[in-house]
Please model this.
Amino acid sequence: SELSLIKPGQIHYRYLHLAPDYDQTVGLMKAGATGIAFETVEMTNRSLPLLAPMSEVAGREAIIFGSNILAKHMGGKGILLGGVTGTARAKVVIVGAGIAGQAALKMAIGLEADVTILDVDISKLKYLDDIYGNKINTLYSNAGKLASKIKDADLVISTVLIPGAKCPHLISMDMINSMEAGSVIVDISIDQGGSTPISRPTYHENPTFLTENGVVMYCCANMPGAMPKTSSYALANVTLKYGLAIADLGVDGAINKFPELKPGINVYQGKLVYKHISEAFPNLNFDNLEELMLVAN
Model:
């Protein structure tokens, strides 16, 4: 196991996704390492600059992969996203209007699907309405509207995210069981545990599995890994300056230069300091980062 390679004093500056991963969390703590998670580095406006490019990649991929899985030989119902003259377009439902959701939306519109996007942030929905007008349907998300739209969907793209936290199961088993056989769910949220009760990580070599009622689940961990050239350049564009600062100045010095790195610290010198992760694993001791840094300095 790679966990055995973690050494005291190491700095792990990478995607961590600890909330659904108890073993990795404990491994970092036991080793006395520091873990800085790309996915929780946060600007003052609450944007996530190191997660954004991979969310964009995954959102675009979700439509490409989902469209392919809808093919009959892939287990789908055999419907073309944009249809053709005299036929119905596929119904695409996007859950969440963040970076991944908007990237998926742009691709779905480009393929001329019948698209609905749901979110609880009215300002995001208004922005998308202003841009795309009658090319899309926007809905304020609640359990009733979500259930209604998912029931009739051919392709569902789930982009649910609470930064650093385990993903809530917004898509219930009742919703999944209401879908037609051959419908597809792409769960982009799988790296944070997944947004359905049956989501489990799959891999690029065998990315899908079937539910009992014939819905095709795509829950591929590290979706951007399927497009490594694009993903690597996009990630380097946003992570390099912080990595160089950590190497030159150490963790504390890098935080002084770039305060947005502080929320990225999930584990500090073996101590768990990220609240959402402690909520996922209440048996693990939670420490205050500010106090630990004062003692360390």
